[in-house]
Design brief:
Two copies of one chain form a homodimer. The first copy, chain A, is built from 18 helices and 15 strands. Chain A has about 550 residues and is α/β, with parallel strands linked by helices. In chain A, the strands form three sheets. Chain A has an eleven-stranded mixed beta sheet, sandwiched between helices. Chain A has a two-stranded antiparallel ribbon with strand order 4-5. A two-stranded antiparallel ribbon of chain A has the order 6-7.
């Protein structure tokens, strides 16, 4: 692999990074068989595991939910090493299918598994649980550096401890794979010059979403059971939704980011928050419970000092359905999903009302947040891109240069924008509180799309409104799988007249065949810092849908 | 009084503002007698009430603590109107003695009192309680505008609702007086071109502190029983300490500021927080309990969603005494106060250790916070001063132009400073956590000076380190009265060799006679967002001191 010193071109740095990744994957033992060559991969990767993995590996990676798997591990009905090896091999398969990994932690994971198996008693809330992690989250013990998808940072020593991961480690988990993210970590897809493009495991012509799209592709292949993402505009929820897994974005400052590596350190007008991406709902609460039980605010003092306190509804929650956001009409399968879930909730005895957000002007929210993402006009990241000579990707151009709101701000302009943000937040909060006026019960959660539709074709994720809205408001939000695109039921409305350019762009993108079988998910949103209530509402909604 | 339209000079605007104030004071009925002319006021104002007020007024304003007074009001053993009139007259006296008011709310307060007396049943947690308020806090119903001490804002319509005050109003309080603050609201004294200088009720040659120095002078005269201040660098604690009352600065975002009027709106790198200034300890918890029971986060969404949850020590707290801050040696009476309280705590069975903060570099904290106060280089406030033509006061010059750290920052410079701030906070948190290592109990609170000494002579409050340190860290902190300067016990250490320029400045300021009888207070500091624990610790400490 050689050293990175004096590598003259960005392409050589990329080759070095990929060689590092490939070397980590070459450790897989036994080798994976039965995977077609890259050029001959099927559109959907869902049938690949049957060909490449053993029945036992498939059982371990597919048959158990998180709680069940943890139970088996704790009771030592399965060894940590066997579980770890199964997920390592399945992750390698996911990489071959979707290009979702930056590194497989083969040696470290097996060493860790053996250590845990050697303990006289299992210990820790995550004993033996494999956890996959996003590349820009610094880690102790990982071989490679943390480039955060900047070629300029490839091979530079940016690892190091990470408070959240230290907590999981202390609770007995096994880190086994690190996953891709896009250039600048600010696309709702996953493409970088360092590792190329990550694709959707249900349809390689579609994106796995982003920015935590390596995690979603991996989890969508069941190559992981619990992953860690981060979300500042949809980066957990959009990819989770696009592969039909669960994802949760807490309010900021509930979960720590100390040890994460990305541009914009010290920028605090809009911030991201790490959160879980999991194959089942249990994983969301488990993640939060374990993360907060460690009292991370004692180490990272900007975090909110508040224990995790599970919420219990004493009567069925009141749900407000946001059918559209007043800017862009969702695609037909999304509207069908909303209808199906709303009906189920109503049948289960919940009060279901409409969330009419047109007067709340979601477009204004986007104008504010898109400017607050880059109060330096994007100078820092553009400089990092320039530093290596790597090309600026189209979705980077979209989110920085094509947003009319983005410019380098003076301090006074920044203050003014923060005031606008706060006023917008106050208006939204007021609207929410008002639902409880005149003898009505206040709305508990909003049920809404996590995107205008299923996963988009590559390069088309150019409308963030359905997720970024809740980042601007700092509301906690969970996504959960509902259905799949079904051409028989999700016909295009040929009479629809788009209301604006973005609406037109989104409308024209849709044809049922293009998205056939793609997962369709929904989003549950709560008021700021009501993380516990959102997860409780999600449980009620899923029960109404007939799930356990 | 006339209108403000077309007033050409800043002096005329000032005259207009003072005439407004004087007209509000002219309503006092019966008139106050027995107060010497301004030029003949005694050094201490403590004996003035006896001459000017009736025995019953003195009883009402002096004889009861807050809990007791609220009890009498609730049981209707005293009418709200009688209480209100007594405090109104005593506040007018305080104004004559210390120049602490911007407006006496004579008519409104009496009207409100009559209304409360007319209710068939008393209602609200603050039923009938007079509350005084700092001028820059917007208010509904106040006649005059909110100038925030800028001549440029005099007479402009900047009142309006204020979330915190609305809460108190809903709980049945009576607003009766509005109080002075300094130019820019960023001095630890109280002098503005609008209202002149506010003086200490114990010694008119000393400051009442600042920026909530109108409140402290008023409360130090017992012209109010509970006032609302705000603190971004010491503005509650310093003035409370200088007049021997109680004050409490919560962590930011625990209590709301919606409706406050000051420069720097939208600046969020360092923020202030309102808090109580009271004649007794009960008032601190009462303020917090009532403020948070209203769930202000539902209206002001940036606030922390966390109920007020009283803390109970199950064993005596562990106290760390900070004898000095590593920069400036406190004056002898302050060191004596520390020693007396530490001894009392030890005698009461508490573990008392030293807080050695030299390795924690408090000077560095000042470098960070002094820059973060003015990321625009002070441009906005200097512009406001220039706009009217009012002169810049020496302590404005001190905190903006004389701080080498202050300059207009680029966004990247700002981010860098925020990273430094967060790193500093993390180091401090780590040091605190470490006190719990090796089988030791972790320190519960730090006991430290709230200032290098008692109230300073006017213009000398040029070292903020003893309070601003806890703003940078965002730690909650309460001040409480301990003793008074006693020349017999507080001799100057003539052998002391100052360690730096600031230390020299502070050392040379001291002579026991100059501060004779000035109140000396101490400060109790807890970890971030542990408001409840700080107040519980203060109660334990005061019990150790033999107080109820």
């Amino acid at each position: 692999m050689g050293s990175l010193a004096n590598l003259p071109t960005w392409q050589e740095k990329v080759s070095w990074a990929r060689a590092q990744r490939d070397a980590s994957l070459a450790k897989v033992e036994p080798k994976l068989n039965g995977i077609p060559e890259a050029d001959n991969l099927p559109l959907s990767s869902q049938d690949l595991p049957k060909a490449a993995l053993t029945a036992r590996e498939i059982e371990i990676t597919e048959q158990y939910g998180i709680t069940e798997l943890l139970g088996l591990l704790r009771e030592r009905k399965v060894s940590v090493e066997e579980v770890t090896r199964a997920f390592l091999r399945r992750a390698a398969l996911a990489q071959a299918a979707t290009n979702c990994l930056t590194e497989l932690l083969w040696d470290q994971a097996i060493e860790r598994a053996k250590y845990l198996d050697s303990l006289p008693e299992p210990r820790g809330a995550l004993f033996g649980l494999p956890i996959s992690t996003k590349e820009h989250h610094g880690m102790v013990g990982a071989n490679v550096t943390t480039s955060a998808s900047f070629v300029a940072w490839v091979g530079k020593a940016h690892g190091g401890p990470n408070l959240l991961y230290d907590t999981f480690w202390d609770e007995g988990c096994v880190f086994f794979a690190r996953t891709t993210q896009p250039q600048t970590i600010m696309h709702l897809e996953t493409e970088s010059n360092v590792y190329g493009r990550t694709v959707n495991p249900y349809n390689r012509d579609l994106t796995s979403g982003g920015s935590s799209g390596g995690e979603s592709a991996l989890l969508g292949m069941r190559g992981s059971i619990l992953g860690v993402g981060g979300d500042i505009g949809g980066s957990i929820r959009c990819p989770a939704a696009h592969v039909g897994i669960y994802g949760f974005k807490p309010s900021i400052k509930r979960v720590g980011t100390a040890g994460f590596r990305n541009a914009g350190a010290g920028k605090e007008t809009i911030q991201g928050c790490p959160g879980p991406m999991t194959v089942d709902r249990d994983g969301l609460e488990l993640f939060m419970k374990v993360a907060l039980a460690a009292k991370p605010w004692r180490v990272e003092p900007s975090l909110t000092v508040k224990e995790w306190t599970p919420y219990k509804f004493t009567r069925p929650p009141k749900i407000a359905v946001q059918w559209w956001d007043g800017v862009v009409q969702p695609h037909p399968p999304m509207t069908r999903a909303l209808r199906e879930v709303a009906d189920a909730c109503r049948k289960a005895g919940m009060e279901v009302v409409d969330w009419n957000c047109e007067p709340l002007d979601h477009r204004k929210a986007w104008d504010i947040i898109s400017a607050l993402y880059w109060p330096d006009g994007g100078k820092e990241v553009l400089g990092l891109i320039k530093e290596s000579g790597e090309p600026m990707l189209p979705l980077t151009k979209f989110i920085i240069e094509e947003q009319p709101t983005v410019k380098e701000l003076t301090q006074h302009e920044l203050w003014k924008l923060c005031v606008e943000r706060d006023e917008y937040r106050a208006r939204y909060a007021q609207a929410w509180s008002k639902t409880g006026n005149d003898g009505h019960r206040e709305v508990d959660v909003i049920l809404c799309p996590p995107s205008f539709g299923a996963a988009t074709p590559h390069g088309q994720s150019r409308y963030w409104g359905y997720t970024a809205q809740w980042n601007l408001l700092d509301y906690p939000a969970a996504v959960f799988p509902v259905t799949q695109v079904d051409p028989a039921r999700d016909a295009k409305d040929l009479d629809y007249v788009p209301k604006n350019d973005q609406d037109k762009f989104v409308y024209e993108m849709y044809s049922p065949e293009r998205f056939s079988n793609a997962p369709v998910s929904l989003q549950v949103v709560g008021r700021r810092q009501e993380e516990e209530k959102v997860l409780a509402a999600l449980a009620e909604i899923e029960r109404a849908m007939g799930r356990a």
